[in-house]
Design brief:
single chain, about 450 residues, mainly alpha, about 60% helix, about 0% strand, globular
Length: about 450
């Protein structure tokens, strides 16, 4: 969770404690409000991804802890490297929202603006990640120990094992987050609002992307929408009109301070060209292919009984990148145990189906349940979001979703994201294990 550190921390914390006592019955809504208010004070904004995940606050806390750890806390990679790797990962799926977000953060942590011109401008050791980035994003079953060896044995440009593990975690995290971003985009009422191009992501508008069509998100509209959202959030959280007035004043002050910071950062933001994620990738035609239809003998099914997260992946990643295994494990457990209208059998069917289309099989699972529990249009949606989440390829939501609450739809997208994350990690960690024993 985000910790408030400025002079507004104490009064806001007092206010949050008062809110906790007032709304005991509605604890989930209360937890969301506290998370959002802390984010507002510390960053001046609540990002669009957090807004989407807010219907599941238990999961949101776990997600934010993991993301904060891999991008900001102790680790072998310098901060600019971390955000640039995230840019490379998001660019594979042309996710303008994440490319914009990490480009801005890259500069704010001291990254060289020249690197944002494209892969040709970065140090050779970063360019070495391009192949594993491409493979993990689209055909993770191609990941093999010789790829690991190339990264670890490239002379002066070589990576350490600890650095590589952190890089792989960031790549997998951002690839799967692209699925969530575009999955929630497909959940909107219209495919292409106001005549915008099919690759436009509404999350860009929510975060002030300079590439957003002017008719959708000029700066004043962006600020107004954010303030309106925060007011509604606080109105749901507080019963006392006096407390509401005090909190509004504090949030107004925080927003005004944020505007000043944005003005100071205009020159920095002008250095970034957000419109073309393709500058951060090579081989743009490389994409997902049907694993089940492959005939090559050397692409065998990945059997979980031979290499699983619980018995192998967790211990390896936790040993090479301290504590990340626990954080990731908490995410996997959290998303599968969320209170939901979806039955445990349906959740497992979604999870195992995603792993299946990525070449991972469970010997103890009856895959007939997938066809029994998942309607065809839902399977098509899940596969598209998991395997090629570009907005141009993501289908409309299944008709069966019309009867579901928004939180239930988001839960499906969370399951897709986490199942994909674990699948990529399994392939990468197995390849690392094979390299270590070769």
């Amino acid at each position: 969770m985000i910790i408030c550190t400025n002079k507004m921390e104490y009064p806001l914390r007092t206010q949050c404690q008062r809110v906790q006592k007032q709304v005991i019955v509605n604890g989930e809504k209360e937890r969301v409000s506290l998370l959002f208010m802390k984010a507002l004070v510390s960053r001046g904004s609540v990002d669009a991804v957090s807004q989407q995940m807010a219907s599941h606050p238990q999961y949101l806390e776990s997600f934010l802890r993991t993301q904060h750890y891999i991008l900001h806390m102790d680790g072998p990679l310098p901060l600019p490297y971390r955000h640039y790797i995230a840019i490379m990962a998001a660019a594979r799926h042309h996710c303008t929202y994440l490319v914009y977000l990490h480009s801005t953060n890259f500069l704010r942590v001291g990254g060289d603006p020249m690197w944002l011109q494209g892969l040709e401008a970065v140090p050779p050791r970063l360019r070495l990640l391009d192949h594993i980035n491409k493979v993990l994003a689209h055909q993770p079953w191609l990941t093999a120990w010789p790829h690991i060896q190339t990264l670890l044995k490239s002379g002066e440009q070589c990576w350490s094992l600890a650095e590589l593990v952190q890089a792989v975690v960031i790549l997998a995290h951002c690839h799967s987050l692209c699925s969530f971003v575009f999955g929630c985009d497909a959940d909107s009422d219209s495919k292409s609002p106001n005549g915008t191009p099919p690759t436009f992501c509404p999350f860009d508008a929510a975060n002030g992307n300079a590439n957003v069509p002017q008719s959708l998100a000029t700066p004043p509209e962006h600020i107004t929408r954010r303030r309106q959202f925060l007011w509604r959030l606080c109105q749901q959280s507080l019963d006392s009109s006096c407390d509401m007035a005090c909190l509004k004043q504090r949030i107004q002050k925080s927003q005004d301070e944020c505007l000043l910071q944005q003005a100071d950062a205009e020159e920095e933001d002008e250095m970034i060209c957000f419109a073309d994620p393709s500058r951060f990738i090579t081989d743009p035609d490389f994409c997902y292919q049907e694993f089940a239809r492959r005939e090559e003998d050397h692409f065998q099914v990945f059997r979980v009984q031979d290499y699983s997260w619980e018995d192998h992946g967790f211990s390896l990643v936790n040993r090479l990148y301290s504590d990340i295994g626990h954080l990731l494990d908490d995410r996997f457990r959290s998303v599968t145990t969320l209170p939901s209208l979806h039955s445990p059998d349906l959740k497992r069917a979604i999870w195992n189906y995603i792993h299946c289309v990525l070449g991972i099989r469970y010997d103890d699972y009856d895959y007939g349940e997938v066809n029994q529990l998942l309607e065809r249009d839902l399977k098509l949606y899940i596969k598209a979001v998991a395997c090629f989440p570009d907005a141009t390829k993501t289908p409309v939501c299944p008709l069966s979703w019309a009867i579901l609450k928004t939180s239930e739809r988001i839960h499906v997208n969370l399951l897709i994201m986490e199942a994909r994350l674990q699948a990529e990690l399994l392939y990468a960690l197995r390849a690392i294990t094979q390299y270590m024993i070769t």
